[in-house]
Amino acid sequence: MAVVTTSPERSDAAVPDSGTWRAALTHAAPFFGMLVLALLLPLVGNDYWALIGTRMAIYWVLVSGLNLVVGFAGHLAIGYVALLTLGAYTTSVLVAGNVMPAVPVFPALAVAAVVGAIFGVIVGLPALRLRTFYFAMSTLGFATIVTQIALAWQSVTGGGIGIAGPEFPAPFNTAWGFYFLCVGIATFTTWLSANVARSRYGRALIAVRDAEVAAEATGISKPKMLIAIFLLAGACAAVAGGLFASLQTYITPDAFTFDLSVLFFIAILIGGRGSIMGPLLGTIILTILPEIAAPLAAWSTFLYAVLLLVIVLVMPGGIAALLDFRNRKPLASNRAIVPRPAALADIVRRRTGDNALALRGIALSFGNVKAIDGLDLDVAPGKIHGLIGPNGSGKTTTLNVISGYYAAKGGTMTLGDDALPPGMPALRAARGIARTFQTPRVIGEASVLQNVMIGGTVEGRATFVESLLALPRNTQDERMLAGKARALLGVVGLDGLADVRADRLQHSELRFIEIARALMLDPDFLLLDEPAAGLSGDEIDRLGELIKAVSARGTGVLLVEHHADLIFDICHQITVLNLGRILAAGTPAEIRVHKEVVSAYLGG
Amino acid sequence: MLASIIAAGLASGAIYALVGVTYNTMFSTSRVMSFTAGQLAMLGGLFGSMFTLKLGLPLILGFLLTLVCCAIIGIITEFIAVRPVLKNLDQHLYVLSTLAVALMIQQVAAIKWGTEPQPFPRLLGLGSGVWDEKFWLPVLACVVTILGLEYLYRRTLVGRAFLAIAEDNFAARALGLPERNLRIASYALAGIIGGVAGYAGGELLLAFFANGALLNFYGFVPVALGGLGNNRGAIVGGFALGLFQQAANFLVGGIFSSVAVFTLFIVVLLAAPQGLFGGATARRV
Amino acid sequence: MLTSADESLLTVRALGSGYGKIRVLHGVDMSIAAGEVVALLGPNGAGKTTMLRALSGLLPVNAGTVRFDGRDFGRITPREAARAGLVHVIEGHRVFTQLSVTDNLLLAGYDIPRSERAVRVEEALSFFPEIAEKRHERGGALSGGQQQMLTVAQGLVRRPRLLMLDEPSAGLSPVLVDRVLNVIGQLKKQGTAVLLVEQLLEKALAAADRVYALVQGNIALEAPTSESDLAKRLERAYFGHESHALEAS
Question: What fold characterizes domain A51-325?
Answer without folding.
Answer: ABC transporter involved in vitamin B12 uptake, BtuC (1.10.3470)
